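Attaching the record inline, Q. Sequence:
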Amino acid sequence: MCIRDRYNYLRTEAESRKGKTMGILDKLFGTRSEREVKRLLPTVDKIEALSDEYAALSDEALRAKTEEFKARYQSGETLDDLLPEAFAAVREAAVRAIFAAKGRPADNPLIVHVPAPEDADPLCHISPAARALMERFCPGPLTLLMPKKPCVPDVVNAGLPSVAVRIPSHPVAQRVLRACGVPVAAPSANTSGKPSPTTALHVYHDLKGKLPLILDGGECQVGLESTVVDMTSDIPTVLRPGGITPEMLLEVLPEVRVADSVLRPLREGERALSPGMRYRHYAPGGELTLVKGSQENVRALCLRMYREAVAAGRSARILAFEEHLPDYAGAQALSIGSLEKPETVAHKLFNVLRQMDEEGVEALTCEVLPAEGMSSGWEARRFSMSSRILSRIASGSAGVRRTVAAVTRRPVPSSALWR
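Structure, as predicted:
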């Protein structure tokens, strides 16, 4: 590029940034003052980011706040006083847009993502135990609930005194966070109640028309949620199981508690301290029945339920481990992964559940991982897919015992401690 072309490029770029700054000042405060624009040029990057966010939002509360800002500016308040409030108002509107796009209830707090442990310091008070967990497991599938600082708006964490912070390991997520330069509140990119997305295509099918951009970082390697640990209590407490197990946490901490709410729905009036505690997750559209027991009995029951559904005119599928597919010859059976690689089952299962939703399948029977191959995250989440899930225990010729909402009946003491 020659000197003249470089000069013209820089001049055009400067005019564009000047115009964007003037545009947002006009929208928020009703002024297009050249003097104010020149004075604010040192903060132009922040104002440009504010402009981009504002343009993407259609929030009634933000519009009302904008009218208030304009009136206050006209009455003599300076932009130096008003801009911090404007930044906060736009940020809060951006967070509300997340809830709107997902159809997510406002009392379900979000996780705030940062690229490194030191970036969490402005957000929360970090205990020595929390720092030890960060050093061991971050970046990675661990979310820590810690006492928040005033800069975290209530809309992010449902008005709680704590905030959930995670440091993701994916290189694309890391690059996005570092490019943003600010903490990013971000849940899973799916409609609330739908199976978690493991590909960009899943996100498109769920949220098309609701997002200005989908960034494809490739398929999820595991597909499970992060483990959420409450670090605000005397004993660190697992609020949501995931890729980091209590046994792994005990390699760092002397004691870990598992909240009894992990394996049951929240009671009436009980507050959700963590994302994923109150509302159902991974819910397929059809009725899903989990079948456990000896493989011979599981096979017999899955086939029987499949044939009963087909005879009743319902579309049906059997979800089985790769090694067991030959047992279901003559039935429509799909693989949910290999018993030799249990860590991949969640990812495969979520893909299959989405496929079943797209095909409108009404009745699903699914094999269950044996206990020795099951992480605590998968064990809990297999029971939280939907209030309509049934758990059947295949017990041979003695008949079938059936329990509804099996998660509420698991014999787990409410104060179970891991030592």
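The CA atoms of residues 144 and 229 lie 5 Å apart. The longest helix spans residues 3-29.

More tomorrow.
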